[in-house]
Specification:
Blueprint: E1 8-10, E2 22-25, E3 30-33, E4 42-43, E5 57-61, E6 66-71, E7 77-82, E8 88-99, E9 104-113, E10 118-129, E11 134-138, E12 143-145, E13 150-158, E14 164-169, E15 188-191, E16 207-209, E17 214-218
Length: 219
């Protein structure tokens, strides 16, 4: 095995970095570099679909696309790509109901990925009543999130009629359908038939679709 290069490990920017200097910000989980100029330093590598984190504020997933309304089938769990550009903590998550469903719930959670697909459950955030219109928010035990690809999960459980939720009319480049047909917006993977707690492993997706628009509060 060849020699490894270990970068300077800091939690604040170096006092006077020179052009080409590189270091690791362990508080952010980022590799940083200097171009010799003053101000914010360069971030090396991809910054994900949440490129910056405004601590204590809300971040959209998906981050773009016109708002629309979609019907959510019972037992379908949508998995939306969530890739923060720096290490952060998820403190709350919310969606928006446009057609309330009495007797049903919305369940939310977070999965890691293998760099492509959702894999292992990080946290099941539990359920919230879907019988109320408007913002439906869950505040779980805060979860530390690394700056790598994760998947946020949201889906319906129970109820007999239709549940409408806000979605975003957009494609996501991280979602890969199984056919070349361009028939609808694809910004989420999904699994069907999940009626209780989220499984420890997401498993092979049943398909791709237009998922639930979420907002996450990050610190």
């Amino acid at each position: 095995m060849g020699a490894l290069l270990r970068l300077l490990n800091v939690t604040t920017p170096p006092a006077s970095p020179q052009s080409g200097d590189t270091w690791y910000r362990s508080d952010l989980g980022q590799i940083r570099a200097s171009d010799g100029l003053s101000g914010e330093q360069l971030t090396i590598g991809p910054t994900g679909n949440v490129p910056t984190v405004r601590s204590g504020f809300w971040h959209n997933v998906p981050a773009y696309g016109n708002a629309a309304s979609a019907n959510v089938p019972d037992g379908r769990m949508f998995a939306m790509p969530f890739w923060p550009g720096r290490k952060c903590t998820l403190t709350s998550i919310a969606c928006n109901t446009t057609l309330a469903l009495i007797g049903g719930n919305l369940r939310m959670g977070l999965y890691t990925s293998d760099g492509v697909l959702p894999t292992t459950l990080v946290a099941d955030f539990g359920v919230i009543d879907s019988g109320i219109l408007g913002t439906r928010q869950i505040t779980p035990t805060p979860v530390a999130v690394r700056p790598v690809l994760h998947y946020l999960v949201c889906g319906r459980q129970g109820g007999l009629l239709n549940l409408g939720v806000t979605t975003r009319s957009t494609w996501d480049p991280m979602i890969a359908p199984s056919s070349p047909t361009i028939a609808a917006n694809r910004n989420a993977y999904y699994r069907d038939g999940i009626g209780g707690a989220l499984p420890a492993s997401f498993g092979t997706p049943d398909g791709t679709d237009q998922g639930v628009a979420l907002t996450v509060q990050l610190t």
